[in-house]
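[job 0412] stage=fold_complex status=start
inputs:
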Amino acid sequence: MSAHGETVGRPSSARRAKDLAFRLALLACLAVAIGLLGILLVDAVLDGAGALDWDFINSFTSITADKAGIQAALWGTIWLMGVCALFIIPVGVATAIYLEEYADETRWWNRVIELNIQNLAAVPSIVYGILGLAFLVRGPLNLGQVVLAGGLTLGLLVLPMVIIAGREALRAVPSSIREGSMALGATQWQTIWRQVLPAAVPGIATGVILALSRAIGETAPLIVIGAATVIFANPTGLGSDFTAMPIQIFDWISRASNDINDYRPLAAAGILVLILLLLAMNGVAIWLRNRYEQKW
Amino acid sequence: MEAAATTIRLQGRRRHGELAVRLLLGLAALVSLLTTVGIVYALLEETVVFFGEVGAHDYLFGTKWTPLFEPASFGVLPLVAGTLATSAIAMLVAVPLGLGAAIYLSEYARPRVRKTVKPILELLAGIPTIVFGYFALTFFTPEILRAFFNLDVGIFNALAAGIIIGFLTIPIVASISEDAMRSVPQSLREGAFGLGASKLQVTMRVVFPAALSGIVASVVLAMSRAVGETMVVVIAGGLQPQWGADVGKSMETLTAFIASTAKGDVPTGSIEYKTLFAVGTTLFVITFVLNMFSIRFVRKYRQVYE
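[job 0412] stage=fold_complex status=done
writing structure:
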């Protein structure tokens, strides 16, 4: 009777212990990953909070650490993000519409475009820097190390993210809406422009913000195309020299600290500004998703 | 008869605006294709010139990397060793932790827990890598490796860089694997439970194997990401090439060489400039092969269950 109960009724205690141990191990994995994120954030706050004040936001960099600030880098980043957004929104959305609404997937060239985008999403960011250096900064376009070249390099880097997010947003719009519109006599483009695209805007906007929040922290491509590290003016146009927040932070990290100048708090304070901007952008993305998410 | 004629007339009518829009959208789609063409062209153009000056054999099999000093030597293997070492360490961290997190989120966590934890993992994925580099250099090496584990490591070392890259690739492993495991049909789990399997058995012997192609895809993609990661190795991994496997010391990687050499002031046409592109090509080829593997495996699991 008892043997019967053991084998069929409920699992043996050894088996239960094993299940529990496994479950705890899984939880530990998650805890370690999230714990490191926590330590990283706390460490940045402890190192940088002291240096983070209005003067830091409002000053240019300086050879004396006490007086150095992030103004030029902050404005450089804002300019870069503007150029990047103006590039990725039209090109990314148009590509997403083409692939989702027009492309015939049985054609080999459309499959190549799709495979290509998947691969581009995983090409190391530094390779985009090489592309920018060879084609935008020098070579055929020969723009020099300016805002336009930096913004376009970052734009090419995050374009696949916008395309992938845009396609998902378009795919989520039910085909009954398209069919209804077509049945009333609208052309395909009228259907897309007046019905499908407006319904997909929240998803697309979320994708664009996430793409920009990836671009804002990218350092390696900007190093390769030769963004300035020490600059005492904000950009005034697309043709201005520029620095950017991650570049400025990298510069401070690379400077050897000594008794007179300690650059670590500056780097950490720069990191805090960057993370705060990122959190704000992610917050907007999450809000957009929750506010306008439609269940069809 | 009347109706048929109308249909024919409608089909026959050309709408030039529609055609123009279609063409414009197709042109936008070409931008991404041109990006790849541009990358390949930019890399190959200078790489071919490079191999005209440095023998391919010397480059691919040489074990001494001193391109910027006299006597210059262009053996890329030390950089490859650095990249392999940091990526391997990263995978030792990311694979168990990422898979553990994925299994928990897919099989054990309640929906509410999953809804809270996933955005946190996304946040981990969204933090700029320069922040991880700063953390590796100023906290992880001195406080954890040296003080806590009492290891005799240099300020710049491949171990810290590898471990931290591992942490930043955890979200890649976790999110794709979780996706793959959740797309395993519920009926498979119920069948196994019905045969008397425990939760652990169902998870490890039914769900895990069924999701294997997605899991492999996630690991390969994370590997590609680790190989291409730049800022962590530049900041915390050091810039001394090493032909060996002493991970407690500096090991320069392919990416670290590119970032430290290209600071915008390398003259076009100089040997440094060409070397950048040769190393870039090496990096691109490695990650391209990894990406193609990963894309294939993702397609496989999507085909099976969706």
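[job 0412] summary: Residues 44 and 268 of chain A are 5 Å apart (CA to CA).
[job 0412] exit 0
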